[in-house]
Write the structure tokens for this entry.
Amino acid sequence: MRILPLCLVPLALATSGCISTATSIVKAPFQVAGKAVDWTTTSQSEADRNYGRKMRKQEAREGRERKKAAEQCRKHPDDQEACRYSGYRAGY
């Protein structure tokens, strides 16, 4: 009776590596699918970061246009067309 438990201990230690490998093999397709979904979708934080970058670029463009319009108005104060600035419209 005492021999059986002593034989089971090395057997359990030997099979733990096999069990670990088997679980890795079973989990692999799910991990690959999860990475594919992560690569193809945009998280909310990524969307917020991209939107912020887009808005900063638009604001910089608007600032350049305002500066250019003010400079044209200073150079040609009599020209009504040069002094008219309709403003930047985002998304157009």
